[in-house]
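Collaboration report, partner site 2.

Our partner group contributed sequences for two proteins of shared interest, and the home lab folded both. The records are reproduced in the order in which they were received, starting with the first partner submission.
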Amino acid sequence: MTGYPVPAGRHRVELEIKRSRFIATLARAAEAEAALAFIAGIREEFPDASHHCYAYQAGPPGNTARIGMSDAGEPRGSAGRPMLTVLLHAGVGEIAAVVSRYFGGTKLGTGGLARAYGGAVQSALESLPTAPYEPSVQLQLVVDYPLLAPLERWLHQHRGAVLASEFGARVELTVSLPVEAEAPFRAALGELGGHRPELSVLERQDPLP
């Protein structure tokens, strides 16, 4: 899995449609728990809003393994679903959206609500600052000294890095590298020679469960 853009921070836009205020807030949510905490925070920020409709997609762009949505009292299918559809086609990963509505007295109908909620999220996405994210893995290695220099060169060439090192009878290393480079890295270790390296996974930040 290659890298993908994620929200660089919390972002908000506000629209007025037929006297109703629609406040769309976006934020990064790498896990469903983070999305739900973000949604709860928006409810606390706008406790007098008529509705807090939401959608989230806590994974790579377009992935549906970790999604959620709610119409929050609006007619069924008029808010959460159109919001989620916009998020899934946005090309941005790990994102949650809450649209807080202050009812202005004019009913919009199911179609009008769907356009309003989906449009509010789309409007926020158009100005959303993003940052690149690349799933990574941390490995702990124990290798012979002759392997150290070629191993460091390999990591440098494949966007990896040595995070920590300890020198004794052999070298103990903690390294980080992109998830997609893990299999080639393991293969390269076997080709470097010397005693078989000891290797274990410390932390994996996979994009999928």
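Second partner submission, folded after the first:
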Amino acid sequence: MEDIKKLLSAPDYDRGRAFANHLSALHEKRERLDSLILNVTKSITALKGETIMADQEKFEGFKQKLIDENELNYGDEIRKRFGTAVVDASNAKIKGMSEEQWQRAQALSAEINEVIKKALEQGDPASETAQKACDLHRQWLCMFWADGTYSKEAHKGLAEGYVADERFKKYYDSIADGAAVFLRDAINIYCSQ
């Protein structure tokens, strides 16, 4: 409340711009909800046998559902952290994926986890196996990040987040105990070369 009070009393506060920004955000949320409602409606009619959804239409609906669920669960958080343009570009990249590209991303994710597990058994984040995991991780990121936006600094920052954010830490540590810290250390080496 104190922050809001300071914001409202700031000399450069533009109430009109604030309302316009809020309205824009509401329209974006409505578009996401409308899309989700349409997709669920189509799925229901297909389940009832009233319509037939083509495989491509099902896949498009699947991707949209993933985006919508991610937006619902993490949208505000990731937009504050990375910016709307970055998130929108990533969503667009997912929307543009073919089924083969999506399958490749899933296979790459599984391969990364297996290689991390092997590298952790070796115990050296500078090992060839650990560095292979980092390169696979870079390839996987590039499948979801807008073309040309990958940087070693961003990769290192993300790896730090894997350790700092309990949700990511839990995911990587479920692969093997200590995997989040190990991957972060390996990525720091990878990105320093």
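Feedback sent to the partner group on the second submission included the following. The domain at 99-192 is CATH 1.10.490.50 (Globin-like). Residues 48 and 190 are 52 Å apart (CA to CA).
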